[in-house]
Amino acid sequence: MKCLRCLRESADVVAKAPDGSGAWEVYYCTECNYSWRNNETEEISVLEKRDAWGQLDKVDFNQMRVNVYRAMKKPV
Amino acid sequence: MGFKDLRSFLSKLEEEGQLVRYSEPIALSPDWSDITRALPRMGQYGPAILADNLEGYKGKKIVAGVHASLANCALMFGHSKHTSLQDQINSLGKRWVAAGDASSAKLVWVENPPCQEVIIEGDDVNLYELLPLHRLNPSDGGFYLPKTCVVTKDMYSPDDIDSENVGTYRCQIHGPNTIGINISNMHDAGEHIAQAEALGVPMPIAICLGNDPMLDFMASTPLKSDESEYKYAAALGDFTYELTKATLSNLDVPANAEFVIEGEILPFERFPEGPFGEFPGTYSGVGKTCRIHVKRVTHRKDPIYSTIYIGGRSETESDMLLALNTCSLLYNQLRVDFPQVRAVNAMYQHGMTTIVSAKPRSPGHAKTIALRVACTPHGTDYCRNIIMVDAEVDPFNLTEVMWALSTRVRCEEDVFFIPSTPGLPLIPADVRPPLGRKLVIDATTPIPPDEFRPSKVVEPYQKSTDWRDTIAKIQQQLQK
Ligand SMILES: [Zn+2]
Question: Is the complex ipTM higher than 0.85?
Fold first, then answer.
């Protein structure tokens, strides 16, 4: 299914309410790593109502900041 | 003294009227998030809440507010819940000095620990179903583990406990059994990742949830890389710390934690993580960070998931958790060179605005002390506004601080700034992160030949404080 944040077809159901109540399902996108529930507020769960600020459909993932680590110590 | 696990501390909170049990249905979003925001705004005696009827997670226990108030923090340290902020900080400062290098702290390793009563592994791990996960802030990129003790080893000396690190890092759930973790290159765990990548090997990592309150406190205290959080938790809490070995690695984990998530980080893997509503009240961006591949989750029977609120611009539990350790660490560091320092208030945004009261030794000396604040390990990037007040001014009493600013500051002489210093990427006012800037306001009374118009200061009443305490005690009796 379509991810609500990056709009790629890379989201899927990954969990259901563990108490068996059917209260919600969780969706997760393997591309942008967004997670959401179907019963969250409309500002989160309905595409048209989402804040454009957090959307990633126009973002080039190759240009994202990458955490880089440099060791201070030398191998013993 | 000391609480060996979350459960014994919750019992203490309950005994003292500081724990609210709530079994009515609660919606995950936004109700649970709003509850966690409400707790630290309930004043000195704000309680923790233990709930077990979260939407879709009925029966699972979740707690928030363990460190939300001054009263709860006082109880963690073994004080009366009525102990003032100033007294708690003074006492903590003394405990730091008494602990020294924590070499006398007592650690024991136990077999068959409570944290490994239940073991879930491989494809059976579904973090979304196992933990009552919730979105803290509406624009967060997913569900975060907000109250973590993340354990990593120095990869070059994996048998050394002092360089083993226990820290609080941003952990975002990335699917049923992977977690994105954002660790800065400056942090101890960042050094460990760098070492693992230099060696080209997976790095074992454990995320411990629902810990004794002192370990949570130490995990957010900026210790040096060769100082053990376990040892300082034992020394400052005055108890024997019970550890155990993780089931899949050499890592040492708290034997009485509610949950331990065991996994590894593979070298050079990076995936998008964020945004997250951070402690200055603004969201981080999205960047590529390391990923934890979860191999196994161990937990206690009937486990309690512990959470905290981070993200609002002030008055959050995260602010409270960081306040006491930041104040007392800065105080102790300043006192090494400047015994004239009387108290340090670094409660606001982790010390971004820091108020120091001191008795300057000579004209202009308060400004020297301010520059020392800016050079402490924590102050280098955090302390961006530094306010100096006289020793007689209580830096925790903002009414007094405002008096000092109103009546002592000469803008031409007492206000200066340093542009382009180290800063934090999370401050919107700093447009070229990680460059920041420092502002110093010296609100101490000038010492000749520095000039101040001759004036007669109104004398304090000598016994006013004693009378205040006496009257307050009588009033406390009336309120019981
Ligand atoms: Zn996506």
Answer: yes
Q: CB–CB of B63/B306 below 8 Å? A: yes
Rounded distance between C-alpha atoms, residue A15 and residue B139, angstroms: 21
B residues 169-188 closer than 8 Å to A (CB): 172-176, 180, 182-185
Distance from the A66 Cα atom to the nearest Cα atom in chain B, whole angstroms:
5
Catalytic residue ranges of B: 278
Domains delineated in chain B: 6-306 (2.30.110.10), 317-443 (3.40.1670.10)
Token reading at B147 = 């109250």
Among B329, B337, B310, which residue's Cα sits nearest to residue B382?
Answer: B329
DSSP per residue over B261-326, as a string? EEEEE-TT--EEE---B-TTSSB---EEEEEEEEEEEEE-SS-EEEE----SSSS-HHHHHHHHHH
Task: Give the pairing type, strands B287-299 and B259-265.
Answer: antiparallel
Q: What digits encode the pLDDT tens for the residues B44-77? A: 999 999 999 999 999 999 999 999 999 999 999 9
Q: Which of B346, B329, B334, B420 is nearest to B385 (CA)?
A: B346
d(CA B139, CA B276): 7
Q: Provide, as residue numbers in chain B, all residues whose Cβ is less than 8 Å from the Cβ of A27.
A: none
3-class DSSP assignment, residue B93: helix
With b for 16 or more beta-carbon neighbours within 10 A and e for fewer, the B288-318 pattern comes to bbbbbebbbbbbbeebbbbbbbbbbeeebbb
Look up the pTM and report it. Answer: 0.93
